[in-house]
Amino acid sequence: MITFNHLQKVYESTQALKDLSLTIPNGKIFGFLGHNGAGKSTTLKSLVSIIEPTSGSIAVDGYELAEHRLDIKRRIGYVPDSPDMFLELTANDYWDLIASAYQIPKEKRERRQAELAQLFDMTAHADSPIGDFSHGMRQKTIVIGALLPDPDIWVLDEPMTGLDPQAIYDLKQLMRSHAAKGKTVIFSTHVLATAQELCDELAILRHGELIYTGSVKQLLSTMPDASLETIYLKMAGRQADQATVNDLEGGTGNV
Ligand SMILES: Nc1ncnc2c1ncn2[C@@H]1O[C@H](COP(=O)(O)OP(=O)(O)OP(=O)(O)O)[C@@H](O)[C@H]1O
Q1: What phi, psi does 72 have (nearest 5°)?
Q2: SS3 per residue for the chain
Q3: Boundaries of CATH 3.40.50.300 in the chain?
Q4: Which of 2, 38, 132, 216 could be disulfide-bonded to 24 (CB atoms 3.0-4.6 Å)?
Q5: What does the pLDDT look like over 26-82, one tens digit per residue?
Q6: Angle of helix 135-147 relative to helix 165-180, nearest 10 degrees?
Q7: In this predicted structure, what is the pLDDT of residue 84?
Q8: Which residues line ligand 1 (CB under 6 A)?
Q9: Shortest-distance Cα residue to atom 5 of ligand 1
Q10: 201-237 as b/e: b if 16+ CB within 10 A
Q11: What is the 125 CA–ligand 1 centroid distance (Å)?
Q12: Ligand 1 centre from 13 Cα, in Å?
C-alpha cells in the first residue's frame, strides 16, 4: 500500500501539487488522470524519488520513503514521461545499466531481457543506438528496462504513448497479471477509454488538487450510462473563459 500524506510541490513560482493525500492499494491497477500540467508526473516523480516534495510525505507499506529511500527505490520499476534519454546507448547497453543498478543476477537478467525483448518485438534492435529508434521503439526500450528487474511496484507515466496496438495489448495484459499477483501497478494516461478498461481505482487531479479518488465502478455509478470520458470532462473539463472547439471552427457547430 502506498500513501501520500499532504504532499505539496512548488517549482519556483508554480504550485504543482496542493495538499495531495491518497492511498494506493496493492493488487489493483491505479490510474492518474488530469489535464496537461495537472500534476500527474510530479506525483509519480515524487514517488520514485526523482524530485523532493516541498512538504508532506510518502509511505510504502508503512515505511516512510524519506527514511527508506534506497530500499523502496529497489522495489520500483519506473517508466518516465519521455523516452528520449540515453540516446547514445544501444538498447542492450541501457538494459545492462538498469541490470547493474538493480544488481539483477546474470541468469535472471538474461532470461527476462530475452523474454521482454521478444514480447515487445525488440530482439532484432537490441544492439542499435536508442537515438536511431522511432518514438514507439524508444518507449518499448524504456518499458523493458522498467520491467527487467521484476520490481513489485510499477510506476508507469503514460506508458502506452507511441506503442503499437500489439505492444499496448501486451502491456495491458502484463499490468493485469502483475496486479492479480497482489502487486502494485500505477500509471497515468490521457486515454480515458484505456483508464475505464484497465483501472480498478483512480485519482483525478486538476491544477495540482485531487478532485476524485476511489473506484472506477463507484465513479461510473454516479452517472449511469455515461462513459468515464463524459464524467471526467464534467469534473475536470474546460473552464468558462476558455475557447471551445465551436469558437475555433467559427461557431458552425460542425464538430
Ligand atoms: N521542472 C519543473 N520546473 C518548473 N515547473 C515545473 C517543472 N516540472 C513541472 N512543472 C510544472 O508543474 C505543473 C505540473 O506538471 P506535471 O508535469 O506534473 O503535469 P502532468 O499532469 O504530468 O502534465 P502532462 O499531462 O502534460 O504530462 C505544471 O504547471 C508544470 O509546468
Answers
A1: -70, -40
A2: CEEEEEEEEEECCEEEEEEEEEEECCCCEEEEECCCCCCHHHHHHHHCCCCCCCEEEEEECCEECCCCHHHHHHCEEEECCCCCCCCCCEHHHHHHHHHHHCCCCHHHHHHHHHHHHHHCCCHHHCCCEHHHCCHHHHHHHHHHHHHCCCCCEEEEECCCCCCCHHHHHHHHHHHHHHHHCCCEEEEECCCHHHHHHHCCEEEEEECCEEEEEEEHHHHHHCCCCCCHHHHHHHHHCCCCCCCCHHHHCCCCCCC
A3: 20-75+152-164+175-240
A4: 2
A5: 999 999 999 999 999 999 999 999 999 999 999 999 999 999 999 999 999 999 998
A6: 20
A7: 87
A8: 11-12, 14, 16, 34, 36-42, 81
A9: 11
A10: bbbbbbbbebebbeebeebbeeeeeeebeebbeeebe
A11: 32
A12: 12
Residue 7: what residue type? Answer: L
Q: What is the topology classification, in CATH, of domain 20-75+152-164+175-240?
A: Rossmann fold (3.40.50)
Mutate to test the pocket of ligand 1, among 40, 52, 79, 84 (most ligand atoms within 8 A of CB): 40
- Name the more confident of 83 and 228: 228
Radius of gyration over every alpha carbon of the chain, rounded to an integer in angstroms:
19
Roughly what angle, to the nearest 10 degrees, separates helices 106-119 and 135-147? 150
pLDDT of res. 82:
87
Nearest residue (by CA) to ligand 1, atom 30, is 37
- pLDDT at res. 7: 98
ipTM of the complex: 0.98
| Residue for grid cell 454516479 | 222
> Which residue among 4, 14, 192 is best mutated to probe the pocket of ligand 1, counting the most ligand atoms within 8 A of its Cβ?
14
